[in-house]
Specification:
The chain is α/β, with parallel strands linked by helices. The protein has 14 helices and 18 strands. Bound molecules: NADP nicotinamide-adenine-dinucleotide phosphate and magnesium ion. The site of NADP nicotinamide-adenine-dinucleotide phosphate (NAP) has 26 residues, from helix 7 and helix 8.
């Protein structure tokens, strides 16, 4: 068994050491999940709902501990990490209502009674990235458990601590052994085995488009179900008729939250040319006011990047001759810090404009009119998120329908609300998570005809 040392990204100091399972141990965990699923699917819907509510209560009783783990192990600001732990509780509570509502159909047919059932797929393999270790874990885990599946989850190698603790809380809450297992191993070992193992019936993957494409190809060998949440290069479209003060004041948080390590980051700001100069005047103080610093300090809005390697990657998009319009601040000394950075004017072929940076770097590009804004917004292989700022209701609706992305907000930057579906168009993904339909995505529809004659 190999070991991995988790580093605090704000200090570069070790937090703890985690034992990493190998492929054989992954196979053993999958065998336990297969056995546990036979019993878990037979737990009555009301009892399954009750266990998920107890699990949510156990998370609720440990919000502070989970938040502290995420601050130390992932560098998330304390306020954000506290919200994330509460979000896990909320997602569990929301889907705790699902077992009692997995309702099939009675379809009128001649000669008998026809009914449909939502049967669990079986064992679900959940592959989680390092950027939002708690929320993304909960989005796959909670609806999968609610609809009678067992889950083998692989957190990112860099950020395993909160998922490990949440799985312990599941056991303490009374979920049977083997129903939810967390394997904090390498993607190339544990993740690959989940994809290749025939008894894992569905993969839920969040991460890069590159690895997601390999995962999808691996799943194809077994016709394995797969949900993919991949990268993004989302546009924040600012029309001249909007509340420009609010648009400028909120734009930094739409891209610099989580230090830009967010697949929904609005990393391309598109501004109608007639208000470009005024927008830039308003944006500069907003960017400089982002509170970057010690994640454990109250009031911190942005922490460090996840790792030294990732900081090198982000920095490669801002070479010495980059068109930096202005930058915010970042601490000196240890820690993987990178200041909020605004690039303008930026060329249409500049990698900072075309590629997902996954760091606190945003570009500003002018557009002429509505049609131009839509063309520029859609000129990317991605299609995850985006924002539209306008006071014209008709325009808000037209542009919302024309932008090819899965999750849009008008006069706001909301992306992920657990009540509503989340996922991407084009190379940003496949399938949807969250919302009222998520439990059905972990089931197969079975049709049964019973002859009456
Ligand atoms: P990644 O390499 O795609 O990793 C995502 C998850 O997949 C991790 O748990 C990883 O495990 C696992 N994995 C890696 N190779 C695998 C394989 N062959 N089979 C199965 N699972 C495998 O993403 P990353 O390296 O963390 O980040 C790279 C880029 O991905 C980012 O810069 C960003 O562009 C994008 N990203 C997007 C999101 C999103 O929410 N859409 C999240 C994170 C990253 P290990 O950690 O052990 O390698
Ligand atoms: Mg990787």
């Amino acid at each position: 068994m190999s070991e991995f040392t988790v580093l605090n990204p704000a200090t570069e100091q070790p937090v703890t050491t985690v034992a990493q399972p190998d492929a054989e141990e992954t196979d053993a965990a999958i065998a336990r999940a297969v056995a546990a699923q036979r019993d878990w699917r037979a737990v009555t819907p009301g009892d399954r709902a009750g266990l998920l509510r107890r699990f949510a209560a156990a998370v609720d009783a440990h919000i502070g501990e989970l938040a502290d783990l995420e601050v130390a192990g992932s560098g998330h600001p304390l306020g954000q990490a506290t919200w994330e732990a509460g979000h896990v509780r909320d997602v569990l509570l929301y889907y705790s209502a699902a077992p009692e509502r997995l309702i099939g159909k009675q379809i009128p047919v001649p000669g008998g009674l026809n009914v449909t059932f939502h049967e669990p797929v079986g064992v679900v393999g959940l592959i989680v990235p390092w950027n939002f270790p708690m929320p993304i874990f909960s989005w796959g885990m909670a609806p999968a458990l609610a609809s009678g599946n067992t889950v083998v989850a692989k957190p990112a190698e860099l950020t395993p601590l909160t998922a490990i603790r949440i799985a312990e809380l599941a056991l303490e809450a009374g979920l049977p052994e083997g129903v939810l297992q967390v394997l904090p191993g390498k993607g190339s070992v544990v993740g690959q085995r989940l994809v290749d193992h025939p008894q894992v019936r569905k993969i839920v993957f969040t991460g890069s488009t590159e690895v997601g494409s390999q995962v999808m190809a691996g799943c194809a060998r077994h016709i394995k179900r797969v949900t993919l949440e991949l990268g993004g290069k989302s546009a924040n479209i600012v029309f001249a008729d909007c509340d420009l003060e609010r648009a400028a004041a909120t734009a930094p948080y739409a891209v610099f939250d989580n230090a830009g390590q967010d697949c929904c980051a609005r990393s391309r700001i598109l501004v109608q040319r007639s208000v470009l100069d005024r927008f830039m005047e308003l944006l500069e103080p907003a960017v400089k006011n982002v509170a970057v610093g010690d994640p454990a300090a109250p009031g911190t809005e942005m922490g460090p990047l996840i790792s030294a390697a990732h900081r090198r990657h982000v920095a490669s998009y801002v070479p010495d001759d980059a068109p930096v319009a202005f930058r915010g601040s970042a601490p000196d000394g240890p820690g993987f810090w990178f200041p909020p950075t605004v690039l303008a004017p930026v060329g249409a072929a500049d990698p900072a404009y075309t590629e997902e940076v996954f760091g606190p770097v945003v570009t500003v590009t002018p557009f002429e009119d509505e049609a131009d804004a839509v063309t520029i917004a859609n000129d990317t292989p991605y299609g995850l998120s985006g924002s539209i700022w306008t006071s014209d209701v008709g325009r808000a609706i037209r542009v919302s329908r024309a932008v090819e992305t899965g999750t849009l907000s008008v006069n706001s930057h909301s992306s992920v609300r657990y009540w509503t579906p989340f996922g991407g168009f084009k190379q940003s993904g496949l399938g949807r998570e969250l919302g009222p339909d998520a439990p059905e995505a972990f089931t197969e529809t079975k049709n049964v005809f019973i002859a009456t004659d």
